[in-house]
Amino acid sequence: MSTNVILAGVGGQGAVLASKLLARAAMERGLPVKTAETIGMAQRGGSVFSHVRMGEGAHSPLIGRGRADAIVAFEPAEAVRQLPFLRPDGMVVTSDAPVVPVSAATGGPAYDLPAIMSHLHERVGEKNLVIVDTSAAAAKIGTAKALNVVLLGAAARAGALGPITTDDLVAAVRALVKPAFVDLDLRALNL
C-alpha cells in the first residue's frame, strides 16, 4: 500500500523543502520513499512541484494521472494545475492566497481567484477540500516564510498524508531545518 502526494507551488514558496520534510518523515517511519521534483522553472513565480510516493507500492518516483491521494498546494492555481493527477476521491489542501503571475499584471490573462476556488470546490468536493487561511497563519507566526510547513501540518491533521502525522513532521523539521528556523517551523507546523 502506498501514499502518493503532490506538493505544488511557485518558486520561493518552499515546495522543495516541504517534499524533503515529508520524505524524511516517511523514512523515519520505515517506509520506502521515492521523490521527484520539477524545479527547472523555480525562479520566483515559476511553477514548482514535487511527487512524493511512500510505502511498499511506490516503485517509481512519478505519480501517474489519476493516482495522487493528495495535492498540497501552496497557491490555488497550482492546485488546479495538478488536478489531473488527483484520484477521484483524493484530497486537496491549499492556501487561499494567490500568487498572481507577472503575465497577469502585464496584460496577459487575468488571475480569477473566485473562478479558481469555485473550480476546486466543484472538482474536489467539500469533504475532500481543505482551504487554509494563510494570511491569518502568517500573521500568527509573524512571517509568510513558513507557510509551506503550515500547509504540511494542515495536510497531516486532515489525513491527507497517509500514515504521516504531525509528530512525524516535527521530527523531520528538527532533523532537516537549520537550527535558527526550527522554532519558527515548529510553531508553523502546530498552528
Automatic annotation (TrEMBL):
Q: Which Gene3D superfamilies match?
A: Pyruvate-ferredoxin oxidoreductase, PFOR, domain III (3.40.920.10)
Report whether Oxidoreductase shows up as a keyword of the record: yes
Q: Does the keyword Cytoplasm apply?
A: no
Keywords associated with the record? Oxidoreductase
Question: Which InterPro entries does this entry report, sorted A to Z?
Answer: IorB_Oxidoreductase, Pyrv/ketoisovalerate_OxRed_cat, Pyrv_flavodox_OxRed_cen
Domain (Pyruvate/ketoisovalerate oxidoreductase catalytic) ranges: 11-189
Q: Name one Pfam family in it.
A: POR
- Protein name (database record): Indolepyruvate oxidoreductase subunit beta
Q: Which organism is it from?
A: Thermophilibacter provencensis
